[in-house]
Amino acid sequence: MKIKYLSKGQMARVKITVTLARNAPFLVLDEPLAGLDPPLVKERITKGIIQFIDLERQSLIITTHELLEVENLLDEVIVLKNGQVIAQEQVEAIREQASIHEWLKEIY
């Protein structure tokens, strides 16, 4: 099957696989869970990302509108609004004060 005939979810899986297969110090995933259903698939994908990244040598940068879906992957959150950084915080520090969801509602 040619890549151009894949569904949105299948294409998302291919993109994640290709990204994780690279031997690069920085890996960038743009909306990695977009188009993936059901939630169980998203959970397996996030577990796969954790399993295959070499945290000793690599950093993972994720852009997403669905922060709660990737929360278990995060060490630090940077929030942008109109192209400007409006917040940057360690996830553990956020969790000491409130949930990620509540923190986002406060700052955004």
TrEMBL record:
The keyword ATP-binding applies. GO terms for molecular function: ATP binding; ATP hydrolysis activity. InterPro entries: ABC_transporter_ATP-binding, P-loop_NTPase. Keywords: ATP-binding, Nucleotide-binding, Transport. The keyword Nucleotide-binding applies. SUPFAM superfamilies: P-loop containing nucleoside triphosphate hydrolases. Belongs to the ABC transporter superfamily. This is ABC transporter. It comes from Gracilibacillus boraciitolerans JCM 21714.
